[in-house]
Specification:
single chain; alpha+beta; 1 helix; 2 strands; 22% strand
Length: 45
Amino acid sequence: MKPLVSIIMGSTSDMPIMEAAAKILDEFEIPFEINALSAHRTLIL
């Protein structure tokens, strides 16, 4: 199923905090994706 919610964090070190959000989404059976995106990384276009 396509994710309805995207959990985005600045670093994988934020995962312990974001796991609580993921748990609630699981409890309500809401499909989600979770990504760690660095604000300091340069995009290559």
